């Protein structure tokens, strides 16, 4: 019965892009900042906050989450583009982020963990492009950097003005996480 929570999430998030910091209610904290990729030109921030503005979207499925696998590599997600057109990120600049994720995968490890809590957002920015992975589950999640890179490379060019869009997101079928690509 996670269908209803996912629909609620989509109604809250898919209407227009939101900044990773706008997803927070109350206090927001950048826990760490580093630059990744071969050229160390992609800014990576881990952001936490008191509560998620979309947290009600998964509240009903919280009891099931403890029994679900924390590894969501390869998990399916539903893509949604932000309408109307105009103001999307440059797909070439988003590709720099995707390449940085692939570089990290080859040199640090394929899997990264975003812990559970009130809100856990892994945000990456390069020039006009910002993307983030949001863990809205009640448990920590492991995700593959190469999967994240593939989503960035798919969302950035496929949610542009030619599709009457300006960025987009992919929401996990079970509603525990999503990846968003938007203009910085």
Lateral arrangement of strands in the main beta sheet: 1-2-5-6-9-8-3
- What's the number of structural domains? 1
Overall residue-averaged pLDDT value: 82
N-to-C CA distance: 35 Å
SS summary, helix count: 4
Structural class: alpha+beta
**Overall geometric form:** globular
N-to-C SSE string, H for helix and E for strand: HEEHEHEEEEHEE
Beta-strand segment tally: 9
Strand residue content? 25-35%
CA-atom Rg in angstroms = 15 Å
Which keywords apply here?
alpha+beta; 4 helices; 34% strand; signal; Cyanovirin-N domain-containing protein
List the helices and strands and how they pair.
Blueprint: H1 3-13, E1 24-36, E2 42-52, H2 62-65, E3 77-81, H3 91-107, E4 111-114, E5 120-126, E6 129-135, E7 141-144, H4 145-158, E8 168-172, E9 177-183
Antiparallel strand pairs: 1-2, 2-5, 3-8, 4-7, 5-6, 6-9, 8-9
Protein name: Cyanovirin-N domain-containing protein
Keywords: Signal
Signal peptide: 1-15
């Amino acid at each position: 019965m996670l269908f209803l929570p996912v629909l609620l999430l989509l109604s809250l998030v898919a209407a227009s892009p939101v900044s990773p910091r706008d997803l927070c209610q109350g206090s927001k904290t950048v826990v760490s900042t580093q630059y990744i990729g071969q050229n160390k030109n992609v800014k990576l921030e881990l952001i936490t906050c008191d509560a998620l503005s979309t947290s009600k979207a998964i509240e009903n499925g919280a009891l099931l989450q403890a029994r679900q696998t924390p590894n969501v590599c390869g998990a399916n997600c539903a893509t949604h583009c932000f309408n109307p057109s105009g103001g999307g990120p440059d797909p070439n600049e988003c590709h720099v982020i995707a390449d940085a994720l692939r570089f990290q995968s080859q040199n640090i490890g394929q899997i990264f963990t975003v812990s559970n809590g009130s809100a856990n957002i892994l945000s990456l920015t390069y020039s006009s492009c910002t993307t983030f992975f949001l863990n809205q589950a009640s448990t920590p999640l492991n995700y593959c950097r190469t999967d994240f890179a593939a989503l960035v490379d798919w969302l950035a060019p496929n949610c542009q003005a030619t599709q009457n869009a300006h960025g987009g997101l992919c929401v996990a079928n079970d509603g525990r996480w999503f990846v968003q690509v938007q203009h910085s």
